[in-house]
Amino acid sequence: MLLSIRKFGDPVLREKGEPVTDFSPALAQLATDMLETMHAAKGIGLAAPQIGQSLQLFVIEFLLKDGEEPEFSFTLDGKNVPLALAMPLVAANPKIKILPDDEWLYDEGCLSFPGLVGAVARQEKVRLNYQDAQGQPHEIIADGLFARCIQHEYDHCQGVLFIDRMEKPDLLKIQTKVKQLKRETLARLKESGH
Predict the structure, then answer these.
(1) Catalytic option among 61, 68, 69, 153
(2) pLDDT at 7 > cutoff 80
């Protein structure tokens, strides 16, 4: 089922998500709906606050064409596995540790900020500890775009948005559009009585 993606200005995007405690089939269904919504919006990651659920939960999926290799490396529970075995990633109660490495700038976008992009500095490598939709614990160590995506979605679960980390010159370039998006979102929320 497609869910509505909350846009910048919606207060839920600034809330720190609550821990996931219910690992029932309802959580697996929510994750499935989030993935379907993310794919429809042409994204690679989506966090629960972005669909109005203030939870420590996000999904990530890289869809590669046949024979295409990912431009990053990762291990799942200490093993090198094919990307298809790690995807889609459903991460509940995520904890990340930045591993000592270089920061790199990359233009990021966000489904809650349609059409807006800007350079964000993030660490090259992270360790993610999380529970899957059934509550089983896992660990992923990833670099490159996978690490960046994990950091971006983790931030959403903490109420932190990519504009908070964006390089100042890039933020200044889109500031007017960001303010306009916030005004439109707040007006829509007021209209709907939220």
Answers:
(1) 153
(2) yes
